[in-house]
Amino acid sequence: MGNVPTPMIERGLALFPPSTEMVPAPTDDETGLALLPTSTECLGDKCTLANTPLGCYDDLHHLYFWRRTYEKDGPGSLYWRLRHNPFNVIEIARCQHDRIHDQYTPVEFPEPEIVREFFQQSGGLKHFANFTLETARYSLDFNELRWGTISRNRGLEPRRNPAQLMRLGHLAKIRDRHLDRVEQLASHLQDADLLQHAVIINPFVHIGKTEPPPVRRRALHIVRSVVKVPELDKAA
Fold it and tell me: In Å, how far from its chain's centre is CA 116?
């Protein structure tokens, strides 16, 4: 690579000259875990890609970079797993992605004990997210069977045969059991001090990404109704 600066090598196709005054990437003062960027939106008038053929586009950013730093011990190693944890990979505008790598030096390794505790908490959050999505699907199915037919009948309660009534009751029981379980899982997040609030309130970074928007909206509504963490509204 000759005299190409290290940051330019690491960033592959994004060969923008690195800043002459790079600073350490932001981390939590107590845990050393990487913090989410303050903004993931395109820089607008300051976008470095605005006049390029492709323009700016959505990209994925690993909170723990560079790749060679965190993947040097190979797949499955502790810090490889930290880099690729779904809650540590975020969608971001490409210009912001370039800005981060231009401005910051790699994130220092958090202590192994902290990383293992993070895995435990993020595993609980992943289970919570998956279960909430499943609850959202049952809730939407119930609402469609209960209210969809009414709206299509101009507000009149339709006559239902025994099979439909049995199905409606079955969905209601499943929905209620799932909501109870979601509340139980949410209670464990109260002590998830290594997870950032913005991640807790919207735990669907890659989980359920292919779900239809109504399911995701319903799931997020359920999350907001059961998760109680400090400054949640600010983080959302």
Answer: 19
8 Å CB contact between 23 and 104: yes
Q: How far is 121 from 115, CA to CA, in rounded Å?
A: 10
d(CA 160, CA 167): 10
CB contact at 8 A, 164 and 141: no
CA 127 to each of CA 59, 118, 130, 207: distance values in angstroms, whole numbers, following the listed order: 26, 14, 5, 10
Enter the tokens of residue 79.
């810090």
Q: What is the dihedral of CA 215, 221, 227, 232, to 10 degrees?
A: 120
CA distance 19 to 14: 14
| Each residue's pLDDT tens digit, 46-68 | 898 888 888 899 999 999 998 88
Asked if residue 197 lies in contact with residue 228, where contact means CB atoms within 8 angstroms, the answer is: no
Q: How would you class 48 by CB atoms within 10 Å of its CB: exposed for 0-12, middle for 13-18, buried for 19 or more?
A: middle
In this prediction the pTM is 0.74
Contact 68/32 with Cβ under 8 angstroms?
Answer: no
Neighbours of 197 (CB within 10 A): 18
Q: Distance (Å, rounded) from C-alpha 119 to C-alpha 87?
A: 10
**Rounded distance, CA 64 to CA 85, Å?**
10
**In angstroms, rounded to a whole number, what is the distance separating the alpha carbons of residues 137 and 143?**
10
d(CA 231, CA 211): 28
